[in-house]
Design goal:
The protein has 13 helices and six strands. By secondary structure, the protein is α/β, with parallel strands linked by helices. The chain has a four-stranded mixed beta sheet. Helix 5 crosses helix 7 and helix 8 runs antiparallel to helix 13. Bound molecules: fe (ii) ion. Fe (ii) ion binds next to helix 6.
Length: 261
């Protein structure tokens, strides 16, 4: 296991070498992208992290055009060296972490339908592209993703360990907040792709905790409604620098569970 080459994922038969078929997008797809973009973008200068806003400029997303992965990959190649890897939808955990451990961000290319504008079970590309990809130009953010994925791969045979790491992923990459110049801002993609949760997460209704690895790993999350707790980082460096602690707490919590069972 440990001597397995890091790039095994590219030879895995489950990874279909898919490409975004830009010509196949319909008028409805363009309309959906536009509506979601125009609904959310005006909120973001006051709500989103500066790093996300700088990322949006760098990747040049606009309301008129569905994100084009070929152009996006050119930008990413010149900044952090990451690339987008097209996947059909949700993929197995080992593939997911295996891709990110090789600087590939898995993304779908399909868009929700008009009747699903507000709620959707599986992430579509408005979530995967609009919400995640601007941050892929931020070096501390992608270094965190790459190395968190490396920790996950070491523990991939242990479902409890993966559950604990999923909580970190969930409350940072998907639902994380950051404090910038004394103000709360959003960097979590699950929030950024929802106008409703953007407003809610920054309000006084939910509880805001300072980033704390053990606290997050001890907290369950849900997928069918807004979170009631959010953790606030002070910087993206803080995320990256917490990796050794994530590994240490993970090993402790795995041992605690083994002692209990
Ligand atoms: Fe996501």
């Amino acid at each position: 296991m440990s001597d397995k080459a890091k790039d095994w994922v590219f030879d895995d038969p489950r990874l279909k070498k898919l490409k975004q078929d830009y010509a196949a997008y319909t008028e409805e797809d363009f309309t959906v992208w536009r509506i979601l973009f125009e609904r959310q973008m005006p909120n973001l200068p006051k709500a989103a992290s500066q790093a996300y806003l700088e990322g949006v400029d760098a990747v040049k997303f606009t309301a008129d055009r569905i994100a084009n992965f070929e152009e996006l990959n050119e930008v990413l190649a010149k900044t952090t060296g990451w690339q987008v890897e097209v996947v059909p939808g949700l993929i197995d955990d080992d593939l997911f972490f295996g891709l990110m451990n090789n600087k590939r961000f898995p993304s779908s290319t399909w868009l929700r339908k008009m009747e699903q504008l507000d709620y959707l079970e599986e992430p579509d590309m408005f979530h995967d592209a609009f919400a995640h990809m601007p941050l892929l130009v931020n070096q501390h953010y992608v270094d965190f993703l790459e190395n968190l994925s490396g920790i996950a791969l070491k523990h991939i045979e242990n479902p409890w360990a993966i559950q604990l790491l999923s909580r970190i992923y969930w409350f940072t990459i998907e639902f994380g907040l950051i404090r910038e110049n004394g103000e709360l801002r959003v960097y979590g993609a699950g929030i950024l792709s929802s106008a409703g949760e953007t407003k809610f997460s920054l309000s006084d209704e939910p509880t805001h905790f300072p980033y704390n690895v053990r606290h997050i790993m001890s907290t369950e999350y849900w997928k069918d409604r807004f979170q009631d707790k959010y953790w606030v980082i002070e910087s993206y460096e803080q995320l990256f620098e917490s990796l050794p602690e994530i590994e240490k707490v993970l090993e402790e919590m795995v041992a605690e569970k083994e002692a209990r069972d």
